Amino acid sequence: MSIRKFLAPATSADQLQSQLRDQELAFGMRVLGIGIYQTTDSPPVRNNSVELTSRISEKISELRVAIVAKEVADDDAKFSGFLKSLGAEASIVDIATVLINGVEQEIVLSRSGVAGGLVLVPQPPSALTPSLPDYAQNILSATSGVPWAKSESVRGMDDYIGIMPERSRLFRNLSDPDGGRMDVVYYECKLDVDNDGSGGNAGNDPFHQSDTSLHDMEGKPLNANQIPFAVLPLDRSQSKTKRPGLTDFGKDLGLGLGDVGIAFWRAKNQGPLQSSCFVYGDAGPPNKLGEGSVQLAKALGVNPSPVSGGVDSETIHQLGKGIVHIGFPGSGKDFLTKGRVLRSSLVPDRIEARTKELFARFLQQTS
């Protein structure tokens, strides 16, 4: 479970650090991220907000707030050096833009030691098959047709907040019986619930926005209560707060708004497997992965509340499995119309057919 809270205006980095500590103590939950929240008032009110997730079950090291100078933030080499200067034991919690004394400042949020006191046990790297979650052993095994031998590890994915490490794979230039070619991206991550778009805010999400990055052919934002969509992290070219070394979904993997994918999930070791076809319909924070619409959560059997629902990072690491996402780069480009807004003719009722077609081709590789 994750919740979001507003903060009082901060006048210094030290005060902001103190505010974050107070939030963790008051709610007994660890800080997952921070950012600027802007209301829809006229004129709008802007302030900092904090995202809290998971009950603290053990002592954790205090968060540290470090301000990044603009000349450092704008230079990848200097930014990388700045991160190293925090120390070998520093674990990055978030890289974000916040308000300090009413001025936008880029910060790095970190802890000493392992993030959140949570010890992750890395899976041994495999040249062929990642460690599949229990619910995917049958449907995504090599015997089921998944060409793991043709995949490569994407280690630049491991530092995304919300991902299961060493579980990402990229399949390049696969061929199918019809002679077609395709790329495929596989990863496991958490699922925060997004109710942005035209469906209103019945869940009383204080961070609800009425727009989405992708629209339907009528030019309307997607309805999170009806459309299963996932959120893409911004690329480095789209956000100056993108952490150096992170894989870009667009530039590096070829996944973009309007592309489709399929997700699988089962929280318990036994029981029915849940799945859902989806479209990449919104863009979100550059360093975090794992956000989907209310409808996507419902289809996967996840609590769909945008305030108290979802499956958070601590839960997936405790279970040793995340929500599987299989994305098909370039799968939506022929259905897009560019203009003032990006529109897709796959929305609302062609997402499933397009995805199932591609997933079937994925399981029928010939070379």
Q: If you had to describe this structure to a student in words, what would you say it looks like?
A:
There is one protein chain. With 367 residues, the protein is of the alpha+beta class. The chain has two domains: 2-116, no CATH class; 188-362. Helices cover 15% and strands 30% of the residues. The protein is built from six helices and 18 strands. A seven-stranded mixed beta sheet has the order 7-8-9-16-13-14-12. Strands 1-3-2 form a three-stranded antiparallel beta sheet, with helices on both faces. Strands 4-6-5 form a three-stranded antiparallel beta sheet, with helices on both faces. Strand 2 and strand 3 (46-55) form a beta hairpin. It starts with a strand and ends in a 5-residue tail after the last helix. The model is unreliable at 114-127 (pLDDT under 50).
Which characteristics define this entry?
3-stranded antiparallel sheet; 7-stranded mixed sheet; 367 residues; 15% helix; single chain; alpha+beta; globular; 2 domains
The sequence of SSEs as H and E is: EHEEEHHEEEEEEEEEEEHHEEEH
Give me the number of helical elements.
6
Broad shape? globular
Q: Summarize the main sheet.
A: 7 strands, mixed
Termini Cα gap = 43 Å
Topology summary:
Blueprint lengths: L1 E5 L6 H15 L1 E10 L7 E10 L8 E5 L1 H4 L2 H10 L4 E11 L2 E10 L38 E3 L15 E7 L5 E9 L2 E3 L19 E2 L13 E5 L26 E6 L8 E11 L6 E3 H6 L13 H7 L3 E6 L7 E2 L4 E3 L6 H12 L5
Parallel strand pairs: 10-15, 11-18, 12-14
Antiparallel strand pairs: 1-3, 2-3, 4-6, 5-6, 7-8, 8-9, 9-16, 13-14, 13-16, 17-18
